[in-house]
Q: What sequence folds into this?
């Protein structure tokens, strides 16, 4: 099976712009989670989608939003970009087997805001 | 205060040596604890997943231990290789807040020859 794919891999934007990142989960996985990773903060949870519904949300401002389509592909949007939004954005898809949820990460999209 | 704390922040060891990374957590109750390895420029890859009833789990040269009473976990790497250079992240799946994953900041390991 193909792994989790994210596009684009790298992106440069300027302050005030908006950006949309895309994530395609592993076939059959219905849960998609988004994370922001910065050197000082580590991995921070953004939100999780399951069957086109947002199931969990982290502590990020409303400028960060997402959605999931019927084929489980997910997009994340950041509006009015700030310098501090520069980070690696990781997407992960999950498969629940019994009591254990196994999460598989994509390679990430590295966003640089100038 | 971070609910999952890892130590040390970074570590440099010689190839062939062993090392142990620590993870202390306050997330409670928790469902399971995971260790991930993240190479530079790549997404994290799962190494081990342990439920609260498991004390130890191995994956090749990686051995994770869990003490649910003291809320501590460790990841022991045996006979380190240059390819072990990466960030190692401890993650706890907490039942509060709707089964949300809580990530530690990671330990950066560098193995040198």
A:
């Amino acid at each position: 099976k193909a792994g989790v794919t994210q596009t684009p891999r790298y992106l440069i934007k300027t302050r005030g712009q908006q950006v949309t990142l895309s994530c395609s989960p592993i076939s059959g996985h219905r849960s998609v989670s988004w994370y922001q990773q910065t050197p000082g903060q580590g991995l921070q949870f953004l939100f999780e989608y399951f069957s086109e519904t947002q199931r969990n949300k982290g502590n990020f401002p409303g400028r960060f939003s997402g959605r999931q389509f019927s084929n489980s592909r997910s997009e994340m949007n950041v509006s009015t970009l700030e310098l501090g939004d520069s980070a690696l954005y990781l997407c992960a898809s999950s498969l629940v087997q019994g009591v254990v949820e196994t999460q598989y990460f994509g390679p990430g999209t590295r966003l640089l805001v100038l | 205060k971070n609910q999952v704390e890892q130590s040390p922040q970074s570590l440099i060891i010689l190839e062939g040596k062993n090392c142990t990374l620590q993870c202390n957590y306050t997330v409670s109750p928790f469902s399971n604890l995971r260790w991930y390895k993240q190479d530079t420029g790549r997404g994290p890859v799962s190494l081990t997943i342990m439920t609260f009833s498991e004390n130890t789990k191995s994956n090749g040269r990686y051995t994770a231990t869990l003490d649910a009473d003291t809320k501590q976990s460790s990841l022991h790497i045996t006979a380190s290789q240059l390819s072990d250079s990466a960030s190692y992240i401890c993650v706890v799946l907490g039942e509060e807040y709707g089964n949300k994953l809580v990530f530690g900041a990671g330990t950066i390991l560098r193995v040198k020859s």
User: Anything to note?
Assistant: The longest strand of chain B covers residues 30-38. The mean pLDDT of chain B is 88.
